[in-house]
Amino acid sequence: MVFFLLMSLETGAGVILCIEKALEQSGMSREDVNYINVHATSTPAGDLKEYNALIHCFGQNPDLRVNSTKSMIGHLLGASGAVEAVAAVQDTKLLVGPKKERLDVKVALSNSFGFGGHNSSVLFAPYK
User: CA–CA separation, 68 vs 87, rounded Å?
Assistant: First the structure.
C-alpha cells in the first residue's frame, strides 16, 4: 500500500498523514509495524519532523526497530525509494545497531519524502 502526500516541513503534519493513510488504506495496525526504514537524509528539519511523526504514530514501542539505508549507501535521489523498499523487505534478517539482532518482521514501513512533495509511506507484510 502506498500513500502519497505533500510533506509540511513546518509542522511535520504531512509525514504523519502519509503514515496514517498508508496504515488506514492497508488495514494494518500501527502495533503490527515492527520495522521502519526511515527517509533520514541527515537534514535537521527533515529528520526531526520524521522522528516526531514516528513518535506520534507509533509511540514509545520498545519492539519497533528503525534503520536508515542512506546512512550506509548515501542518497540515491530518484532511486532511493525503490532501493529502500528492497532493503525494507530484504535487510531485516540482520540489523546492526548497538548489537546485532535478527528480527521477525510482521510489517515493515518504508518512508520516502522527496523534492517537490513526491512523498510516500509503503507497508510490506509477509504473504500468508
Answer: 10
